[in-house]
Amino acid sequence: MGLRARRSALGRQRSAAGRLRLRRRSQACPELVEGAERPAAHLGAFAGILQVDGYGGYAALARRRQQVVLAFCWAHVRRKFYELAPTSPVAEDVLRRIAKLCVVEDEVRGLLPEQRRAARNERSRGIVDDLRVYLDARLRQVSTKSKLADAIRYALTRWDGLTRFLDDGRIEIDPNTVERSMRPVALNRKNALFAGSDEGAENWAMLASLIETCKLHGINPQAYLTDVLTKLVNNWPNRRLSELLPWAWTPEAS
């Protein structure tokens, strides 16, 4: 086969599509997950609070595993009503109520879990309870086929998970910390569009994960990678590889 024919054959091959799944966890927080296509395989034997977006796979996972408890995202609820606000006074009213919750969250962010729970119980619980009554009433008044009814049902069908943050100070009101970690990956999408192979895509995903983990720990990714690669080239012992992970790394280690 000549060069031109080989190029033509390669041109007819379809590109393989893959997904980069992102999650964040610390000792102080529940699991925060965004964009998991197959959560059961991705999370393994995880047990505890899983803070997620509206992807239906998580609800199915929680039904199968009693040890998994879902906390849903108020930012996704807000997004549903934000799209309708220009033409819907009801949507505007819902947004105002959610904004009050966000004010409380801005003020308690960084406090101890018990302090956050107490503040939410005092200031946010009434807002949430009133919002539930308001949504129930509006749902009875609007067309069941309207977009506003869809937005209200989206919130009401997830209500237990949406209100779980009131009783647990470890839970955030949304998993935006994970979504923000996804933005650099999205911005780099065109550069990583053609990874060349499945192995190349996996290597790119691991590198992206290392970089974002460095950022979470306040480490300069370039300094980290330069130091770690230099140590590996200089025969860093295999038994001490765990010392080179971002959360354990120190540039002075030798």
What do you see in this structure?
There is one protein chain. This protein has 254 residues and is mainly α. The protein folds into two domains: 22-177, no CATH class; 198-244, no CATH class. Helix content is 55%, strand content 6%. The chain is built from eleven helices and four strands; from the N terminus they run αββαβαβαααααααα. The protein has helices at 3-11, 39-43, 56-64, 74-82, 89-108, 113-141, 147-156, 159-163, 176-187, 198-216, 221-233, and strands at 22-24, 31-34, 48-51, 68-71. A four-stranded mixed beta sheet has the order 1-2-3-4, with helices on both faces. Strand 3, helix 3 and strand 4 form a beta-alpha-beta unit. Helix 4 runs antiparallel to helix 5 (89-108), helix 5 runs antiparallel to helix 6 (113-141) and helix 6 packs antiparallel against helix 7 (147-156).
Keywords:
254 residues; mainly alpha; 2 domains; 4-stranded mixed β-sheet; 11 helices; 55% helix; 6% strand; elongated
Provide the fold topology.
Blueprint: H1 3-11, E1 22-24, E2 31-34, H2 39-43, E3 48-51, H3 56-64, E4 68-71, H4 74-82, H5 89-108, H6 113-141, H7 147-156, H8 159-163, H9 176-187, H10 198-216, H11 221-233
Parallel strand pairs: 2-3, 3-4
Antiparallel strand pairs: 1-2
Helix pairs in contact: 4-5, 5-6, 6-7
